[in-house]
Amino acid sequence: GYGRSDGDKQTIRSYPGAFIQEIIDCISPTTHKVYCLIGSSQGAAAVFNALVEKPAISSFLAVQNPVSHDPQRFVCIKQPALLMYDTDDDGHPVSVGRLVKKYIPNNHYYEFASSKQPKWLEHNAHLKLLQLFNEYDANNNTTNALSLQLTASSKISLPSLPACVSVAGGIISYLSSYNREPLYRNSKEELESILSAYENQSVQNDDLFVEKIEPKRIEDDESKAQRLATELAQTQCDLCNQHISGNDMSKSLRLPDCRHLLCYSCCCETIKLNSYECPVVGCAMKLNVPSSQLSLYSLPFSSDNEKHIIIQFGNSCKSISSSSQRYEYTAYVECKTTNVIDSVSFDINPGYPKSAIRVSKAPYELVRIMNLEFTCHFIIQWNKALNWPKLRITYHVQNKQDSFTRNLLVRIPNQDNTMAKSHKTREEVVYNWTDRDRTKPNINYVVLSYD
């Protein structure tokens, strides 16, 4: 979800019918349909759009806090629908939900306020879904519901549940997902063992995600001596792969836990600004570098010819439900130097123009309650007198830890601290933190300029 799958991330938006049909064909090769399509936010938009394109792929639909643009199109959706809207969620306006209710006549429609009932979905969604099934599905094959013009009070007959591949398909998917999924804890061997045993016994979903705590390895004296000898002989930086001369070795840094060696230049370009985790690709070891050590490194750019601003961004995350994965996220932007920010817009639907939520004074924060991590671009508008282009930071909200923070050095070429009025300033400069966080190149800065 939210871009963690391989392939083109726009496919689900551009071709929802074909994309979902392909999945259905894999899990239900006999009937080529499913009993119910369920979606949340952008996933709900995909469900709506898929049913508009291919009305026969599902007997029911259920959505929570859906993105539902141009709901007039939904008049062709005849399936019974469960519609659930949070009146406190400005990103998914309840006013649009009431239009959806109007255009999809066979519906069970619910509104709730998460500020007053933060666990409404956890306590009610599954029951409301069963009520929907119970009301409309008489398990009578004499009538095909998809061919009828239905009313909200109709008692209709729907096909019985299609024979779909169940838990085994999920395991196979996880075997090829590597570390993209936040719930992926078991080793490949353990999952393969579960898969081989599945033919002979029933497996509960909870059994798939039991986290095993590995015992901490104790290094014996001989192993420690061998490791130290190898480290003393190392003369190559683990990040840039450049040779470290004898004179420069004293300025390099051996990270204490993962034991990666960084040359002086890499320390200046990476941990000087972001000393949170090891910058080497494939290593997520958390760092605890003393401030006295960090003070030995300087930013790799001179401030004589340019102005430097440090922007801190990230999010906090706390679980609000012990029974399901539901989190309260607070995404934020802060200027760690003299504040020159006029406003910050938080864009959680980058594909839709003018949908960003603007915050015009500090603290620049956006609070959202979501089930999963989600895209959130930060669009920073500077003080108007500076005439600087806007800065967009592409970001993906994290829930792997309680607080996720990163720093970005913004470099502005000296021109009396403003972009000359005679020049046409670029409208927006983009810093792709999402890509940077996956590949970890040595780029912790962005330059604001004309071109």
Structure description:
By secondary structure, the chain is α/β, with parallel strands linked by helices. It has three domains: about 160 residues, Alpha/Beta hydrolase fold, catalytic domain (Rossmann fold); about 70 residues, Herpes Virus-1 (2-Layer Sandwich); about 140 residues, YEATS domain (Immunoglobulin-like, Sandwich). The protein is about 25% helix and about 20% strand. The chain contains eleven helices and 16 strands. The strands form four sheets. A five-stranded mixed sheet has the order 11-8-7-14-16, with no helix packed on it. The protein has a five-stranded mixed sheet with strand order 10-9-12-13-15, with no helix packed on it. The protein has a four-stranded parallel sheet with strand order 1-2-3-4, with helices on both faces. The protein is globular, with a radius of gyration of 27 Å. One of its GO terms (molecular function) is zinc ion binding.
**Residue fraction in strands:** 15-25%
CATH architectural designation of the largest domain: 3-Layer(aba) Sandwich
For the secondary structure, the number of strands is 16
Number of helices: 11
Following the backbone from N to C, one meets helices and strands in this order, namely HHEHEEHEHHHHEEHHEEEEEEEEEHE
Specify the structural class. alpha/beta
Supply the CATH class of the largest domain: Alpha Beta
- What is the CA-atom radius of gyration, in angstroms? 27 Å
Write the CATH homologous superfamily of the largest domain.
Alpha/Beta hydrolase fold, catalytic domain
- How many domain modules? 3
Task: Enter the CATH topology name of the largest domain.
Answer: Rossmann fold
The biggest sheet amounts to: 5 strands, mixed
Distance between the termini: 35 Å
Adjacency order of strands in the biggest sheet: 11-8-7-14-16
Work out the helicity level.
10-25%
Low-confidence sequence ranges: 139-159, 161-168, 201-213
Mean pLDDT: 80
Question: What does the overall shape look like?
Answer: globular
